[in-house]
Every structure is written in C-alpha cells, then in structure tokens.
Amino acid sequence: MAPSEIVVKRSGFPKDFIFGAATSEYQVKGARNADGKGNMADSSADGKNGSVALDQYHMFKEDACLMKKVGLNSFNFSISWSRILPGGKLSGGISKEGIKYYNDLIDALSAQGIEPWATLFHWDVPQDLEKEYHGFLDRQIVDHFRDFAEICFWEFGDRVKRWITLNEPWTFCYYGYVMGNFSPRNETSTEQQTKSMEQLMRSSILHYTCAMTIPQFTPPKKDQAGKTDSSEGDPIGDLDAMAQKLLHHTSSNGNPGTNPYTVAHNLILAHAHAANIYRKYYQEHQRGKIGMANVSTWFYPLRDNSQDDKDAASRALDFMLGWFVAPVIFGNYPPSMKNHIRGGRLSRFNPDEVVLVKGSCDFLGINYYTSYYVKNISGNISQHHYDNDLHVEYHTQQNENPQRVGWPSLYIVPEGIYHLMLQMKRSYHNNYNNFKNPEIIITANGLDEVNNKDLDISKAHIDETRIEYHRDHLECLKRAIDHGVCVKGYFIRSLLDNFEWAQRYNVRSGIFYVSDPNGCLTKFPKRSAMWWRNFLKKPE
C-alpha cells in the first residue's frame, strides 16, 4: 500500500513522542544589531540577508501562541553566538540584553506549554572571529565555542533540557567551503571550478536543494547513435545556466580539497568539548541531554545488480552522515573516508581526542528531505576536491521511472526516511554509554514551495502537497519505529514562511503563510496548519 493511502494517526505514536517546529535565529529573528548584538558572517552573496526576517525578536510571544494553537509541544530555536558574545569571545564581554532576550523567549514558550530546545550553532560564526583567524578553519575556535556553550548552559539550562550543539555541519562545510554560496564563501577558485566543472555538475549540489535556487542536473549519456540513454538519468535544467550560477560564486582563497575536512574536524571537536563541559558540570543537576543534528539524504544504487553502485551508495552516506556521526559514536571517521581521502587531508583524532569525542551524543538528530540514486565512478584523483574524493555520480531517475518532484526541484521520497532510520540503527550503536539503540530525533522535515507572488493569500495558503509530504513521511517513520528504531520526536520545518538562506524569500516552507503588507507581518494558517492541528488534537 502506498504511503498516501494510509491514514496515519497521532495515536499510532507513543504518548511521550515529541512533535515540534524548528527554525534558526538568522531565518526568523531579525533585529540584526539590536541591543549591542555583534555581526555574523553574512550568508548571501548578493547582499540580501536576514536583518529583519520575521522580526521574531519582537514577536516571539505571538509565535509561541501559534505553536500552542496548532498543538505542538516543542520548539527548536537557535541561539546566536554573537547575540550572547558580541565579539565572539568572553574577553569581549557578555551581552546582558542578549541573555535577557533568550530568557524571555524560553519563559514565553514554557508559559504556553512548549518545551524549549536550543541549538548552539546554526552556521552563524561571529564576524570578529572570521576576520581574526578565519573561523572554523582555525583550532582556536574550539575553545571559544566551548566558552559560548557554557554561558548558555549556565544561563538557560534550568529550563532547556535538550541541547543541540551543531545543526547540519555537513551543510556548513559543503556550501561554505566547497561550493561557497553560504557564508563564509570560502570555496573553489574559478580556475579549479573550470577544470572540474563536469564533476561538479554531477556532485552534491543535488544533496540539499535549499542551498541554491538552481535546477537539478544529471548529465545524459549517449549511445552509439547519439541518442540519450534514459537509463542513466535525464538532464534537469540547462548546463550553461548552471555553470554560470556556480562560477558566480568564486573566490581565490578556497581549497575545496582540504578546507571542508579541516572545518569539519574543528566542528566535531567543538561539539565534543561543549558536550564534555555539559556532562561534567551541568547535566546531573539540570537533567538534560545533549546531541548533534545532521542532515542526510538516502542513497539508492542506480543499478540494482551492481555491487560497485551499492558500495557507492554506502560511501555517499558515509561522506554526508558518517562524516559527523561515526566520530561521536566510535571516535573515528568512517573507513571509506580514510581510504578515499588521500594526501593526508583528513585530520586524525589524537588518543585524548578519541576519548573526548567517542560517545559524546545522548541522541542523534536527523534532518531529512529527499533521496537520490548514485553510481560509482572512477573520479578525478589528480585534483584534490571533496566531490572527487567520493567517486560518486548522482542521479534523480532510474530507468524511465522518475521520482515524484516537489518544489523547488525537490524529489519527494518518503521511503528514504524509513531506510535511513533502519540503517542508522544497524550502523550507529555501541556499548559505550549504553548507546546500544541510538535515540533518534527527526530535527527537521518539510517541504519548500516556490513563492509565487502572483497568488494572493486565498490561493497561496492551499498547500495539499505539504500535507501529503508530512503524512507520508510520518507513516514511513512509524514503520521504522515498528521495526525497532528508537525514534522519539519529529520537528516540522517550518512553522512560518521565513528567510531561506541562499534562496532568501523565493520559497515558502512554513505551515503559516507570512505576508508583509506595508511592513506589517501577517501570519495566516495554511491548510497544512489545519491538518497538523487535527492530527495533534487530543481525544476528549
């Protein structure tokens, strides 16, 4: 039976199952420089940013009421590092106004019966640290992040019982240090991009469509007669247009074969040091948990009977999810990464760091949106580049059976979350810290739609595709739970239409429609908000 034919119910999930909404500071808060807040490295190459966003800085009480009305019981928000430490360091002083704002937000959520979840890093590196030593490219940032995290534990830990140290570190590393369309835009030089453009076209730009508003593309193969072989995938979009998009995001200081691995290593160490401080001084008294949220797609082998493609699918998952999860479970990187990243570019954890990193998560957060087919390729080993290290080619079709497409160019594959959950149960367990069946939280799942400005609110609030998307993913998630996967929660991305990073306001992702007539933000429930309200309604 297809997922859309199954009626999923709230009663099918455990009574203590968490249903919440998730967003980040930069996407909703606004008030960029209010009350002495320091700057963060900007996320948009064209100067458009989240300076105002949804002005949640001043409207958080209203948003808390909306969550309660829908029936959500949790809200995952991020804490801006530079709103707490305007200079990024303790030596630069702590912002009392920043502390007060988050105290007020947490209290407002609690007053509505909404459990606060706090994310410590959602890509907003303090600008001062980026200027001083290039942020996460330098080991110094680990200590500065630990100090920031401890301030948050001290100030908010009496009410915040769930901490997420990092949100989607893969996204930060890939789109900040390989592609360069996210802050700090430290990426491939124009010369390097030109040399490896064909491989980049097949690369991980397919992974996470919220990063760039571009069509997905799979290069077609020709048979001897010059015709396109549909079994190898059809092109989506125009090569020249995509090349121009990529070449627009260029700089001369990027090193996509080394920098993403350096940044990831420092991110993992920053997480581990923060978790160590929390467990050592705060966890016993505050009775909370700490973890990390990673994004992952699911990968199917393009050719079912090809062991090489099966290995490629496993390797693609390692390079996206295992890159960050394997160290915090086992204390080391996946073997496939160590085997394929040559030239000493993948850092190693020393013995003390292995002890620190291993077992440093109480739960694993997963952000899931889509799936892809992958094919094994030989790769260009002469040029050090993250995309070349994978030896993988990405496709969106197998034979002539395309997956159903959503917006924008997002392939809707609910079954992928089911397979991903089972794989995590099989792969990421150990006897350390009683982590035999990892506790998993779906920390983000949702659908973007193109912001059609020709539609008025009477039509734009009708979002049946989003309802179907959530319903089908919940059904597949319940199947995973029934098969023994320890999934404890599900967060909607997102509550409101908001500032979507490099896509800015060109897409809508919320279950509430947000309009801005004459600068006055108006929030109107979409059909999906009504569906969630009915789904979460408690029986009388």
What labels would you give this structure?
alpha/beta; 39% helix; globular; eight-stranded parallel barrel; three-stranded mixed beta sheet; 15% strand; TIM Barrel; 540 residues
Structure description:
It is a single chain. This protein has helices at residues 25-28, 56-70, 81-84, 96-111, 127-133, 140-156, 169-177, 190-195, 197-201, 239-248, 259-281, 283-286, 307-330, 335-340, 351-357, 386-390, 414-427, 457-460, 464-482, 527-536, and strands at residues 18-22, 74-78, 115-121, 162-167, 221-222, 228-229, 289-295, 298-301, 363-367, 371-376, 392-395, 397-398, 401-402, 440-445, 449-450, 487-492, 507-508, 512-515, 522-525. By secondary structure, the chain is an alpha/beta fold. The protein has a single domain, classed as Glycosidases (TIM Barrel). Helix 6 packs parallel to helix 11 (259-281) and helix 7 packs antiparallel against helix 11 (259-281). The two termini are 31 Å apart. Residues 43-53 and 188-252 have low confidence and may be disordered.
Second-tier CATH architecture? Alpha-Beta Barrel
Mean pLDDT: 81
Number of domains: 1
Please give the number of β-strands: 19
CATH fold label: TIM Barrel
- Approximate helicity band: 25-40%
